[in-house]
Amino acid sequence: MFMKITSLALLTALMCGSALAVQGPSQAELNNADMATDSWLMFNKGYMGQRYSPLNQINNSNVANLKRVCTFDTGDDGSFQATPQIYKGVAFIAQANRSFAIDASNCKLLWTNKYKPTGPEVLNTSRGFAIADGVLYRGTGDAHLLAIDAGTGKTLWDKQVADSASGFFTSSAPIAWNGMVFIGEAGADWGIKARMYAYDAKTGEKMWTFDMIPTGNQAGAETWEKADSTSTGGGSMWTSYTMDVDKGLLYISVGNPAPDFAYQYRPGANLFTDSVVVLDAKTGKLDHYYQQIANDSKDYDTAAAPVLYDINGTKHIAVANKAGYLFGYNEADKTQTFKQATIKVMNQEKNPTSEGLPICPNYSAGTQWNGPAFKPGANMIVLNTVDWCGTVKLGEVRLIKGQLFFGGAMALNPVSEAIGTTVAYDGSTGRELWRYALPGTRVVAGVTTTGGNLVFSGDAAGNMYALDSATGKELFKTNIDKAPIGGGVATYTVGGKQYVAVAAGNSSKGLNGAKNVTGRVAIFTLQ
């Protein structure tokens, strides 16, 4: 028997004015977040983005005994793509316009914050928070950045990042570092020109700006051969960010150029779209970059944050994109170490036509907003990817404010043909180690690896599963009330006991979202 905390309990807690004292996490705690066992502080756990926990109470010999202890129902059927973020026994949850704090061991509601948009909401999703010094920071569907008291849920400040009437929104989970909060704009598919920002964590004042679509004398401007196409050039920061705290470098995955399919409208390589851009976090100055696709014509975003890891004392990054590739880069000499197809790829070297070009994958496949995880010691990358094809067509290039700016269309093959997979790769070579496939469903959830030799994830049918990290063998599987899993799995301890929490709900409404399914966080432990 598990406990379900409903919206009635939510209302009761609000009337009672539940509150808690939260003073951290400190910068020292944030620096240690990647290896922490009692917390999950960022969208991808820590600055390196490895989504790895050293915890091993729950392991490959006992995970089959996991039991659900409680479920928190948000009461909201809006998009739910976050990972529960844990600090001092409290789980912080971001969904659409609401933010919640619950007890991470029993789902008891502590507070809720409901944001009231002041402009049109372009895409109403939030992938999570930055947490620092007792404050939560998050974006909104109308392109604001909020600071929320982590103890009370009270909004401390609210800054407009951009004008949502022009297609901007802030869906990514920001990260905080040394008194700064980093967040970028999304909305490339609506014809925006995206920028990355740093804000003062205390005041909300803007500290620096970096243009992802360069113009004039900016580096990369020459890759836009038709200069006036830059005003609608796209680029999006969709998900979250990675940092090398030793060097103070900020790693940013940047999405597709716009219009999405009309490549001829914007000749050139179109920097810094479909790239990992690396900035000096203090100044916002460009350090280096890696472009995965030049002049993208199929909406093949580099949407998910890269993962940073160490091989024999040398730092590497790996990043996966919607085109169905995993890329590896050596940060010492800035070279590409591998490019590995994760699924079937077809006709990617060809441009769309007005008659239609069959392609694999389609733009809702490959690796979406959740990127690779890493298991230290095993030197293993694990990611989710979707094998699913479609047809792309060129069309009219016409910009209408607030509407999609595709310059064509993409038809998706039946979703029954999709094959969602969790795949492991060697972190040095990109060689495939094992593959776990789920025909007929998308797998877009976050991947979590553990010291208990486990890999956790979930699928669009609402199944959370645990695999043996050495073989990919399924060891545990349970359904979260048929709610699609597009968020991630967090694992942590409360009172010395290990728990697993997963976010489930509408992950992509209109594609694989389940109508009238509210968001929920289900918490498990051994019993």
From TrEMBL:
Tell whether Oxidoreductase is among the UniProt keywords. Answer: yes
Pfam families in alphabetical order: PQQ, PQQ_2
Record domain Pyrrolo-quinoline quinone repeat: where: 40-329, 423-512
- Print the keywords alphabetically: Oxidoreductase, Signal
Molecular function terms from GO: oxidoreductase activity
- Which cofactors must be present for this protein to function? pyrroloquinoline quinone
Q: Does the keyword Metal-binding apply?
A: no
Signal peptide, first to last residue: 1-21
Can you tell which superkingdom this protein's organism belongs to?
Bacteria
* Family assignment from sequence similarity: Belongs to the bacterial PQQ dehydrogenase family.
Q: What is this protein called?
A: Pyrrolo-quinoline quinone
Q: Which organism is it from?
A: Deinococcus irradiatisoli
Q: What taxonomic lineage is listed for the species of origin?
A: Bacteria, Thermotogati, Deinococcota, Deinococci, Deinococcales
